[in-house]
Amino acid sequence: MLRRALPExxxxxxxxxxxxxxxxxxxxxxxxxxxxxxxARRSGQPLRIPTLIAARPPAPEGYDRRIAIHECGHAIxxxxxxxxxxxxxxxxxxxxxxSRGSAIHEGTPLEFEHELTIILAGRAAERLALGSIxxxxxxxxxxxxxxxxxxQLQLDREFGLGVNGNGWLxxxxxxRLLPDDADRLRVKLDQFERRARALLAPHRDLLETLAxxxxxxxxxxxADLRPWLSGLQPVDLAETDLNGGPSG
Length: 248
Known about the structure:
248 residues, 11 helices, Methane Monooxygenase Hydroxylase, Chain G, domain 1, 54% helix, 3 strands, three-stranded antiparallel sheet, 2 domains, elongated
């Protein structure tokens, strides 16, 4: 799309522009191209890269850094808990994404705790590095909080690994959770977030520098991330006493 809009642009300039638009949908890119072309026509000038970049709505101040901190939290904790490799991290105007392996292989309780800790690590990273959290971990049914809530309730109600022992109670109705179930869910997810924060705390410098690198490049592939993450030593949570970590 960018090449068609700017056929005279040099390849390095197109690569730079692709980074600027990384993670955006074709519809969003098309809207920016249309707006830039209209602006160029009004000014009597040909479409140029600065005009196209200027056609994108500006992100709120600090937005990209916060999203990068969030995604890097997932990546670092995933590496510490052997849920790698981290295959990709990406920033977009609507948020960010991290592609990684799962911590769940055999389906043991500890593996599920690892996975829940990784899911809550983005929120934990925001709290650690920025001193506050936003709604970014919640919202849709695909959000971190939705995924973590669903997984914890499956542990308790369907997998025979939680508070109900061998009892199979079926999928939870999120709108009709009993108060005791809702309270337990909140306590468990709070504990997993604290665990993620404890894992991240010794690696705060890496969190900050990797986030700055992600903001600059917008998209990092597995090969780009390897030099940043390969030095992390995996943590065995079964032998580690982390403040706030759930047990049993």
